[in-house]
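Archive maintenance. Older records in this collection stored only the sequence; we are now back-filling the structure field for every entry so that each record is complete. The fields below show one back-filled record exactly as it appears after the update. Entries are processed alphabetically, and Solute carrier family 35 member F1 is next in the queue.

ARCHIVE ENTRY
Title: Solute carrier family 35 member F1
Organism field: Corynascus novoguineensis
Length field: 448
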Amino acid sequence: MLGERGFLQTIHERTVAVLTFVRRPARAQGYQSLNTSVDETMTAETPSPANEVIFAKSGAEDANYGTTTRVSSSSSDAEAAAVAAGLSEIEARQVRWYSYLLTADFWLIIFLGQILSLCITATNTFTSFLAEAGTNIPAFQTIFNYALLTLIWLPITLCQHGPRKLGSIVLRDGWKYFILSFLDVEGNYFTVLAYNSTNILSAQLINFWSIVCVVTLSFFLLHVRYRWLQIAGILLCCGGMGLLLASDHITGSNGGPASNMLKGDLFALLGATLYGVSNVFEEWFVSKRPVYEVLSFLGVFGVCINGVQAAIFDRNSFEGATWNSQVAGWLVGYTLCLCLFYSTVPLILRMGSAAVFDVNLLTANFWGVIIGTRVFGYVVHWMYPIAFVLIICGLVIYFLAGSILGDSKKPWLGDNQKDGVAGIGTAKLKALNEARKKGLAGGTEGQA
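Back-filled structure field:
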């Protein structure tokens, strides 16, 4: 009897233990456990391999917006450990001075930079067509771009976040997105005004100020530390741009005399400053938040700001503008190219930086001349190929001074990029992928 009672008691104890084991995950999934002793018992009974770190999606972002979802601190610590392990694996590789130039990231940055330059060249070409037709509406013609960004990205943001969380983001960070949109809208507006008042040579020379603003703001606000070789690369790119402008002046394709040089130069200086600030601000945003969220708010606030500005300043120009099917086609082309530009910029800001983005755009003048030879009958000066090679060489030298991660590892996100989002192009996602590959992590989700 004693043996039977002992056997039944053993079965009872094991049954209770199994039921406790089964019930606990369903009760505690997604929430911070309140029973420390059970957690410790479970950990002791189910050991994991020493080289494997298992973690869940971090709930830090949700906590910032007042949602009720909570993830245990152990999961966050495990994620941070996996990111740290991945970064260590990447940065500990045996590399040579040219190693980053052989990576897919470098060539993708160069490729995306040229796509952005072509987009800028196309928008300038369509703007020239509109101006020749007598349709000078700098604010109104850009409103369609922001409207298209809203139509594309806002539904995605609403689907990903939900109405409640989206409302929390508006209340908490809406003013920040408004500032970003305001800087971007005004940068576009004053740059167009500059080209209407001064010649192309003066406007493009002052656009160098945008690179100065980006480097200065990144140094003081984002704690980016540039090496001398990176500064040399930027200066070499600027030297290539100087050759382009000099050839424009020699061939007389700089626009000739201007209606009001002083006013146009001041507008160009203001536009370049606003561009530089907005580029740095957007780099900070896309490193911390999903791309679809940033672009959707940029579109929504851009429509509002541009709409008010167009109603005030473009009213008279709108009434005297030429409207026909050809003008409509140019507006469609302008909008599509600018939308592609805006949708691609966050990726190069994540993989590179605002400085890399601005330097890449220096090649836009080169592509502008190539198109000009076909459309406007320009003649290519012998300096143009040299200038283009100098700009590309400057980009190569800039990246020679960096690490194998390039500029994707942002200093303001912390050593392990803990404050950043694990999205496409970020160093955090690269580290997590490396950790998975090496068996150091599993089950992680990124956020685009």
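Update note: Residues 1-8, 15-72 have pLDDT under 50 and may be disordered. The chain has 18 helices and no strands.
Entry marked complete.
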